[in-house]
Amino acid sequence: MTGTEHAVHRSLRTRIRENQRPAAVWVAVLLALVALEAGALVDLTVVLVQGMVKAWPFGNPGMAGIESAKAAAEAIPTLLSRETIPNQGWRTSANGPWTNTFLGLEPMVAWLLRFALTYAYVGVLIGWFLYGYRLYREHYRQADWTPTDDVVRRFRSHSWGKFGFVVVVVFVVMAVFAPTLSPALAEENIENPYSYEMQYFDEETGSVETVFVGQANSQSTSQGAGDDNIGLWQYDDFGRFHPFGTMPNGKDLFTFMMYGARVSLFIGLLSMGIMGAFATVFAMTTAYYKGLVDLAVVIVGDSVMSIPQLLLLILAMAVFNGHWLEGIYNGGLLIALVFGLSGWPGLWRAVRGPAFQVSTEEWVDAARSFGQRPSATMRKHMLPYVVGYLLVYASMTLGGVIIGTAALSFLGIGIDAPTPEWGRAVSLGQPFIATQSWHIAMIPGLLVVAVVTAFNALGDGIRDAIDPQSEGGESETTAAAAGGGGG
Amino acid sequence: MSQQPRRQRTASEPVLSVENLRTEFHTDKEVIRAIDDVSFDVHPGETVGIVGESGSGKSVTARSIMGLVDDPGRILDGSSIRFRGEELVGKTEDEYRDVRGDGIAMVFQDPLSSLNPVYTVGNQIKEALKLHQGLTGKAATDRAAELLKAVSIPDARRRLTEYPHQFSGGMRQRAVIAMALACDPDLLICDEPTTALDVTIQAQILELLNDIQDAEDLAIVFITHDMGVIAQVADRVNVMYAGEFVEKAPVEELFANPRHPYTQSLLESIPGRGDADERLQSIEGDVPTPHGAATYCRFAPRCPKAFDECDAIHPAHVDVGEEDVEHTAACLLYPDDLPQEEALAIHQEHQTEAERTGDGDAQLVDENTPPEEEQ
Amino acid sequence: MTEVVESDESAREEDVLVEVNGLKKYYDAGSLTGTPVKAVDGVDFDIRRGETLGLVGESGCGKTTLGRTLVHLEAATEGEVLFDGRDVTSLSGNELKRWRRNAQIVFQDPESSLNDRMTVGEIVREPLDVHDWPTLTVRVAGDPDATVTGDAEAVGPTATGRDVDVTVTVSGDDADVAVRDSLPIGPEDLAVDVDSGSTTTVDVELLPSKAQVRRAHVRELLERVGMQREHYFRYPHQFSGGQRQRIGIARALALEPEFVVLDEPVSALDVSVQAKILNLLEDLQDEFGLTYLFIAHDLAVVRHICDRVAVMYLGNVMELGAADSLFDEPANPYTHSLLSAIPEPDPTIESDPITLRGTPPSPRDPPTGCPFSTRCPAKIRPEAFDDLDDETWAAIDDLHRIVRERGRAERSLRERAREVLGMETRFSDVEDIVVEVFGRLDRTPDTTAERSFEAMMDALPRDVRGPLVDVTDHLRENREEDALERLLDAFGSECDATSPAYYDVDEGGRVSMCHRHDPAYDDVGPVLEERYGDYAGR
User: Could C100 and A369 be called an inter-chain contact, meaning their C-beta atoms sit closer than 8 Å?
Assistant: First the structure.
């Protein structure tokens, strides 16, 4: 028996061992890329841990340890950090050179450089992963063709979907790399501006002065009137560069946007996670068992759906005011929970159809006929066919959640100050929309539109990629050509 | 197509005359030549059968005649479909609409998808009546009820107000036939109309079609894969394989003297023809998907009687029947009353002739490698 | 509901693998709305070891439901299924799972029976993974008290053949190992250690991993069904219908079952491919000693491959017997009709089949009495109307069906309101119906003869007219049930009143369910000949 084995089946490890070079090269480059940003990764983990510990209502264990870990993490050199390419510098004399910026370049250029480098890095990283997938397909995968290949091929020719994908990636990078992409740190500029000092070249006194960031902010406000406005792509009087201008309270809008993306993404992902989990579990069980189980979930789902989400949110915010739950992210966690727990029926209903459809396929019956466990049947035989639809509706719902959060913040009942959130920026800028400070409301508004549209586009792209029927009849014509009716 | 003298045609003019029909589909991945040089006639009052397995292109033939071949498929130049003397190839959609229903009607395989589930059956019949005969109101309802009665649906008036899902499978197919007949067509194309039905219901439908044909002198093109059905309904039969007709004969002649190896194998693999204890004959391999004009015999890879030249010369139709029987087959084995070199020469001549006059719009794809065999 | 009148003792002595007694499967049996769907309505038969029993019938007759119930894909509502003497309808949990190894099913649609996301190898392998195959069963020759440890387990004392994987013959401290042929391993793949103490302990270790053994088994199966070993890694999408069906067969055989239900395995395939698959099924049956239940609607196929055949209609077995004699000399009127409706691939035969009128009744509303009574061409007619011609009888039957249909037709709220108010609804045109049914006694499609109701009635014989007038009156008042009762009262017979018993109809053990088999009535064959002349069929 064993003799004939080797000719046909080799495990992945054997296959890699047989053809080592491509894999080795790929892994090496990947490690190099990761090493460039290793410091940031470690830092991120520490920050997350710190955030969770801080929010824990029952005492703060091990804070000291975390602090030192953070310090250590920050000490690791990373390519795209503010330390490597600083942009917050000042002039030493009236038209003299800049100090404390990267290579003495002016803040705008330094920031732009770091900004571009970050996106370039992400682009290279993504490209490298795609290349790795191609390598795998070419050299190491045993099967000539898998159903995923068709999906990938269709997605690659779908322009709208690709546009969506690109913009979503941009958005995610904004959220993940917020400190790197912003001209200033949120901690310094937005949250605790009176705890930090900065230096600038004061033209009146002719020397370098030190001032609180908060004071600088109060003198760089954008409130409509001609002089009192720092618009797009401008320096303020303190030598700081503002790509998107400043807000009515003088805080940097670009930084606000970047960190706001974090909040939006966090809320979006968390609520999607909750909704997705509920929807998947319920879709699988109702489609498999049907009957009474389906009836029960329908009743529960419809009841939940009948509660108006907005009222529920207002209620939740009011009831949990001051509670530790509300403290996390200034209401972010609470909003995510409410969205998740009240939004799952919509998602479930969307995938219930495909789930039922797949449960009537004969291979599900076949699995039952040889005694397969229900959980394994649901996972292997039903879930792969539903995942696609789940992704589609999830991506669209994510857009909806982001817009919902922004709307709430706009109305003032969402994320509280000082945590940045796009909707609140729109609200803050609303009185000035017709003035020179139009950018305060317009930019966040446009960004929201762009991001939500992108999520929808991504959803469209995924749906068209997984569903061969939607492909304007390619498989139709092959069927027709192959003799139509009879098959 | 054959060089030998044609037998005399029956006196009446054919209702439908298809000549050199070629239909291709251009998808991203490949080009599929679904129909390759198909020709046949249909006379009033007769039933012409097209029989073949899946992948043979018979449904595409029906759709080509009806003008239902859409992008990325198209009928190639050089094809001719003449209905009542009028050329159909090249007509615009509007012009075709006048012919459809009024002159040519079609009955599809799956009655559930040919009837719109959100409209009542009566509504749909009346729609056809309004379009082609301008009937409305009570006149239309009366005529619709008459039509349902004509197809033996009992309690016709009540049935007019019902929806397709309230009909059984056989009744739905009758309703579809009623709709097809609503406008007194001269030609009825039936694409596997009874394949989805039970055998007793099938018997009813076949009987119905027979009655209608006798009463109206209707010409019918009947497409199916079931040799038994063909034997019962057809007057003349065309056997189709991979987009081509490989044998054409009157029905008794075909079953008594099948000439083409494909027809022979097909008849042998029907259970019940031979001894019940013997193993069934089967044909190895699968029906190939043709990608361009044929330069060789498409059945050769699976043919039990194939020889070398079969991969190089494309067979043309030659007479293989008795004196006054119109029986042709496209096989290099025939005409078998001539020595092989002469026979081959005849086929070769046809092929060169076809290449010379041009293959319509398509290039003669150089298909030197016959399709690979799947076990 | 039905009973066996005579039992054939000799049949009982045959080795019966599956015995079905009074099996019923109703859907929506306890529902609040309406009547249940009686998919299988009291079915009895045996399947002998090694035979192929065919199950034929048209759509809606319940044959697929019956097949699925036998492999426990549906739970029986009533009745029992004895598998090797053991009732399996009440099995559950682990016992059910264990039993599933013995009975497998091959599905109809090759497109839908294989999960496109899994490779062929994974598909055929899945049953093996679920049952942790192989559970090596070891028999220690001559020592029933020996303990077995390691990767194997001891086999029961009564196990034979397929149930014993490994036989160990102990002589002192040595062991002679023999492995069952059909397993893909040999003695060299086992490490056997014998410890002869007070009780002999035999330790059996499997050297290759179970995954390897399963892969080897799958590859062997693929070859046996006519695929190639390399196909293990391909996806079903890449194969044709016939090949996909082979994969389905391989999967069904993976666990080495004794009994296989074949649910229309060749219906979705072309004729030439069909032939290959049928040949394959026959070969596999010989090689593995399988017992088949072959469900189909194509009688020619069934005749070719089956030893005995059961004909089903509306959840009942109408006739059951040896295939050849059943097809050559059918006894039951339904079988007659079915056979005569098959188009023969021979154009010289003048086909004049017994064309059944109407459609099968809904399983929610089966007829009282014999299920075939609404369409039976050999239906018993009351003596009073013996001389009435066949056309009039056909018209009466048509009316009967129409009245039954009307009784079941859905009436919207608006229609009911209109009825109550005495206004016209689409059900009002009773007279037109009767004229249509009786006025057109020759079956040409279009008739221009407009007859009035009265004129037509006058043309009918008096004993027919009387009941018809009553029926029309009832219908006009929308009293369908009363109309039906009147119809049956006048024109009904034994066929409408009681369900027939099974009668033995020949020497070979064939049974058929029809009142006409009772010596009190004329038998089916002569009646059909009288009414339909020399019809095609038999």
Answer: yes
Q: From the CB of residue A113, how many other CB atoms can be counted at a distance below 10 Å?
A: 16
Question: What are the pLDDT tens digits along chain C (538 aa)?
Answer: 333 444 444 444 578 999 999 999 998 766 666 788 889 999 999 999 999 999 999 888 889 999 999 999 989 999 999 998 889 988 888 889 888 999 999 999 988 999 988 899 999 999 999 998 888 888 887 777 778 888 888 877 777 777 788 888 877 767 788 888 888 888 888 888 887 777 778 888 888 888 889 999 999 999 999 998 888 888 898 888 889 999 999 999 999 999 999 999 998 888 888 888 999 999 999 999 999 999 998 888 898 899 999 999 999 999 999 998 998 899 999 999 988 888 888 888 766 677 788 788 888 888 888 999 988 988 888 887 777 777 778 888 888 888 887 777 766 677 777 767 766 666 666 777 777 777 655 444 444 445 567 777 777 777 778 888 888 888 877 787 888 888 888 888 888 888 898 888 888 889 999 999 888 888 888 888 888 876 544 3
Q: Which residues of A touch C113 (CB under 8 A)?
A: 362-363, 365-366
Asked if residue A246 lies in contact with residue A221, where contact means CB atoms within 8 angstroms, the answer is: yes
User: Looking at this protein, which amino acid is placed at residue A228?
Assistant: D
Please, what is the end-to-end C-alpha distance for chain A in angstroms?
A: 40
Tokens of C467: 């009941």
Question: Cα-atom radius of gyration of chain A, to the nearest Å?
Answer: 27
H/E segment holding residue C55: strand C52-56
Report how far residue B151's alpha carbon sits from residue C535's, in angstroms, rounded to the nearest whole number: 23
**List of chain A residues whose C-beta atoms are within 8 Å of the C-beta of residue B114:** none
* Tokens standing for residue C72: 């426990």
Judging by beta carbons within 10 Å of its beta carbon (0-12, 13-18, 19+), is residue B123 exposed, middle or buried?
middle
Q: Does B207 touch chain C (CB under 8 A)?
A: yes
Which H/E stretch holds residue C455? Answer: helix C453-459
C462 contacts: CB under 8 Å, gap ≥ 6 = none
Asked whether the beta carbons of residue C237 and residue A147 sit closer than 8 angstroms, the reply is yes
Chain B residues close to A472, C-beta within 8 Å: none
Contact A370 C126 (CB under 8 A): yes
ipTM: 0.81
Q: How many CB atoms lie within 10 A of CB B267?
A: 18
Taken as a whole, chain C contains a residue count of 538
How many Cα atoms occupy the beta-carbon half-sphere of C119 within 13 Å? 18
**A481/B59 Cβ within 8 A:** no
Count of A-B CB contacts under 8 Å: 61
Q: Is B209 on the interface with C (CB under 8 A)?
A: no
Reading the block at residue C136, the tokens are: 């090596």
Is there a contact between A110 and A85 (Cβ–Cβ < 8 Å)?
yes
With beta carbons less than 8 A apart as the criterion, state whether B231 and B222 touch: no
Contact of A372 with chain C, judged by CB distance below 8 Å, is answered with yes
The number of beta carbons lying within 10 Å of the beta carbon of residue C11 is 13
Closest Cα in chain C to A383: C117
H helix runs in C164-263, sequence order: 210-224, 241-253
Say which amino acid occupies B89: V
Q: Are C347 and B265 a contacting pair at CB < 8 A? A: no
In the Cβ-directed half-sphere of C67, how many Cα atoms lie within 13 Å? 28
CB C380 within 8 Å of CB C521: yes
Contact yes or no for B200 and C345 at CB 8 A: no
User: What is Dmax (Cα atoms) for chain A?
Assistant: 91
A371/C100 Cβ within 8 A: yes
| CB-count exposure of residue C205 (10 Å: 0-12, 13-18, 19+) | middle
Helix (H) or strand (E) holding A173, with range, is: helix A159-176
Residue partners of C383: CB distance under 8 A and separation at least 6: none
